[in-house]
Design brief:
Length: about 220
Amino acid sequence: MAGCFAPLRYGEEAAAGTAPASSVALPLTGDVRDEAEAATMVDEVIARFGRIDALVNYGAARRVLGTILEIADEEFDEEMAADLKSVIALCRAAIPRMADGGGGAIVNISSIAAHGVKGRALRSASKAALGALTRAMALDHAHQKIRVNALLVGPTLTSDLLRRPEQIERLKAEAPLGELHTPDDVAAAIFFLASDDARLITGVLLPVDAGRSLPTF
């Protein structure tokens, strides 16, 4: 698993292409399920930038289909490690540093599967747990001026999906807004939740799904 960290104060320079690449991003590679490796990554960020303003967590295990009767124990362990243990490990390392700097923002990338999806029991369970963890952390760390929110992401128009135009049309038809969001749409939502524009928003599970998760009754 890998991470790339950049302080928010460099955001405008990065967008304009005027900031030196070395000051904007620090690519790091490590297994963020391992607390020691997660702590090392955070230490490297502090050494380079002096602070952490935001942490974005995205854990993704390989796709496992099936009901609880069909999934294997090792698949359960793999999913929970990717979706939950990684988040906890990085947050344990980052939160004290954020608090030392006066606060910060954490954005967890979850999924609309958190509502429960037929044939995806394992992913439904792990993403629902991530939502509960997000809200608990929002309560636990508010006094440290640390906000914690999550995005519930639906099907995204990735390069892989672009190779399947029939599936794209079906997914668009299923969404009330008749569109599929792009990775840029997800990035914009992350940046908003991590920015000062969202300074009073915490504990929110925000769908980015073109209305897909809205009730139809």
